[in-house]
Design a protein that fits this description.
There is one protein chain. The protein is of the alpha/beta class. It folds into four domains: 71 residues; 156 residues, Histidine kinase-like ATPase, C-terminal domain (Heat Shock Protein 90); 139 residues, Response regulator (Rossmann fold, 3-Layer(aba) Sandwich); 108 residues, Four Helix Bundle (Hemerythrin (Met), subunit A). It contains 16 helices and 13 strands. The strands form three sheets. It has a five-stranded mixed sheet, covered by helices on one side. Strands 10-9-11-12-13 form a five-stranded parallel sheet, sandwiched between helices.
Length: 508
């Protein structure tokens, strides 16, 4: 009779036991978050490629560990009931990259090669239970590498004749004995007398997770030696996410989004819109959970509700921007019903790249906002070092919109205050750069990001973001290399504002 690998805490467990598990869960989550956060702060440009590959292996395994931990703790603490597949968009290229990063390292430890081959026609995005899929493959690959002493382990990804998904692993080990084949998929079904470590749980778990997905695992010995273990998922058991539902929507099939939103209705609406564009996404129900996701995994974009329990969206954005590394430069769109000028100023000052007003816009507008934020982030990563001959680069439409929002009665005061703030920031930044005062550089460029972003000085905003990130990472070379152009752009923006003040007839 099959036995469960673990059992959740019984409903009548004592309050003391529940509290102990909650505290243990808190510390486990914190420890895993610290490991993953530390990995992301390592500058890959300063280490050799072999070490980079090992770090990627640890990162990929760490993210799987974090997901398994979340699921297990949720079940043990009664936070949610895990029944059947937990459907989410899975980007196959990203998923297979993590599989290769993790298992190629394990193979190299034994002197083995590891290869993944993907057939043409495999969908870019699948909608299925990622945790279950990872557990199926992890146990199959672990066994293949364990029992192969020399040669290559190969993984093949393709489609069956009836368009189902098939992932198969071929090893060059001894294959399965007759006794092992007779006890396949049993709990602790490994035959006695084998010289390899383990208890025979791997295939049992793989088959259980395959059943959870609606598929099955099959095993056969290869005629020339070794084994072939395949996982097949019928076309009726998985749903291909279609990023091309509408020609006027952006293709987000290679984009991973964090959605932080406590309202269930808004969660549902946004998730449907993201799925329609092919995005992979995770959902956080409050600000604390959002920061946990940001500590555990990497995202390409964040959608952050401003009013959330436990931790506000403003605090989440601030925490993200202060965290350092590539994640700190990730585009963030705030989602809020509070769109008065004071609210908008606070949101932009925290580090948001844009604001989506509630009630949420239609699918086309929503998609355009995300595409624009991603395009802008991409542009920021390809900055030229210094182009002193240029004038300040302004998004005049955004500047005009800001003036319209301010209105005739407030535009003059806004320009005067902007000029004063820019001059103050310029003076402080000059002194901080001269002394390599990274704390002040971070503080002043943070202010500069908000000022430049508000008025549409896009290149200055991008430069300030890059210098801010370099100061966080203590990368003095890149920070100082961009300092001259940053200060030049500040000076040109001050000149632009002064010209606007003169044009409007405001005394300087």
């Amino acid at each position: 009779m099959n036995q469960p690998v673990w059992s959740p805490v019984a409903p009548d467990a004592s309050k003391a036991e529940a509290a102990r598990l909650a505290l243990l869960g808190h510390d486990l989550r914190a420890a895993v978050s610290d490991v993953l956060g530390g990995l992301r702060l390592i500058d890959h440009g300063q280490i050799d490629q072999a070490t980079v590959l090992q770090l990627e292996r640890v990162r990929a395994a760490g993210e799987v560990l974090a997901r398994l931990l979340e699921e297990s703790l949720a079940a043990m603490l009664g936070e949610e009931q895990i029944e059947g597949p937990q459907i989410a968009n899975v980007q196959m290229s990203r998923f297979l990259y993590d599989i290769e990063a993790r298992w190629s390292g394990r193979a190299r430890e034994k002197g083995l090669a590891f290869h993944i081959a993907v057939e043409p026609g495999v969908p870019v995005v699948l909608a299925l239970d990622r945790i279950a899929l990872e557990r199926v493959l992890a146990n199959i690959l672990s066994n293949a590498i364990k029992y192969t002493d020399a040669g290559t382990v190969r993984m093949h990804v393709g489609l069956t004749e009836d368009r189902g998904l098939r992932l198969s692993v071929h090893d060059e080990g001894p294959g399965f004995s007759a006794e092992a084949l007779a006890r396949l998929f049993q709990f602790a079904g490994r035959p006695e007398g084998t010289d390899k470590p383990g208890h025979g749980l791997g295939l049992h778990i793989s088959q259980g997770m395959a059943n959870r997905l609606g598929g099955h695992v099959s095993v056969q010995n290869r005629p020339g030696g070794g084994a072939d273990v395949a996982f097949e998922l019928p076309a009726t058991a998985w749903r291909m996410a279609d990023p091309g539902v509408r020609g006027d929507l952006p293709d987000l099939s290679r984009v991973k989004v964090l959605l932080a939103e406590d309202n269930i209705t808004n969660q549902t609406i946004i998730c449907h819109m993201l799925a329609a564009m092919g995005a992979e996404f995770e959902v956080a129900a409050d600000g604390v959970e959002a920061l946990h996701w940001l500590e555990r995994e990497e995202f390409d974009l964040a959608l952050i509700d401003i009013e959330m329990p436990r931790l506000s969206g403003i605090d989440v954005i601030r925490g993200l921007r202060a965290g350092g590394g590539a994640q700190a430069r990730m585009p963030v769109l705030a989602v809020t019903a509070y769109v008065l000028r004071a609210n908008r100023d606070a949101i932009y000052a925290a580090g948001a790249d844009g604001i989506l007003a509630k009630p949420l816009p239609g699918l086309e507008t929503f998609g355009q906002a995300i595409a624009a934020a991603l395009a802008r982030a991409q542009a920021h990563t390809t900055l030229d070092p210094v182009r002193p001959e240029e004038t300040v680069e302004m998004n005049l439409a955004r500047f005009a919109h800001l003036m319209d929002i301010a209105g005739p009665d407030n535009a003059d005061e806004l320009l005067d205050r902007l000029q004063s703030d820019l001059r103050k920031t310029e003076r402080a930044l000059v002194a901080a750069l001269a002394d390599t005062d990274r704390a002040t550089i971070r503080s002043e460029t943070h202010v500069l990001i908000a000022l430049a972003g508000a008025v549409g000085a896009e290149r200055l905003q991008a430069l300030a973001e890059t210098v801010n990130a370099a100061a966080h990472r203590r990368e003095d070379g890149p920070m100082k290399a961009l300092a001259a152009e940053t200060l030049a752009q500040i000076d040109r923006l001050i000149e632009f504002v002064r010209h606007e003040i003169d044009r409007r007839g405001v005394p300087a």
